[in-house]
Amino acid sequence: HVLCWDLLAARWIWADGLRRGIFTRHSVLLTNLIGPPGLLLHVITCLVTGKGVPTFLPDAALSSDENETEPAGSVT
Q: Could you tell me the pTM of the whole model?
């Protein structure tokens, strides 16, 4: 069961890195080797690169916020 958790967390880190353009190779490796410290390293990497704290929301929930904003050239 520990291996399943490590693989699930590593996959989430990898997908989050792809979605937000963050280097994740070191975080995925550490997660697969010893688990939670790799997840913590990913959070630290996100903060250091200026991408903010990772969220656990699916992409659909994140993109719905963008649809509610007005286009840049619109006049109200």
A: 0.69
Alpha carbons within 13 A on the beta-carbon side of 75: 0
Q: Are 24 and 14 in contact (CB under 8 A)?
A: yes
Q: 21-39 as b/e, with b when 16 or more CB fall inside 10 Å? A: ebebeebbebbeeebeebb
- Reported as a pLDDT band with limits 50, 70 and 90, residue 31 is very high
- Exposed/middle/buried for 70, CB within 10 Å: 0-12, 13-18, 19+? exposed
Residue with tokens 């693989």: 7
The pLDDT value given to residue 54 = 81
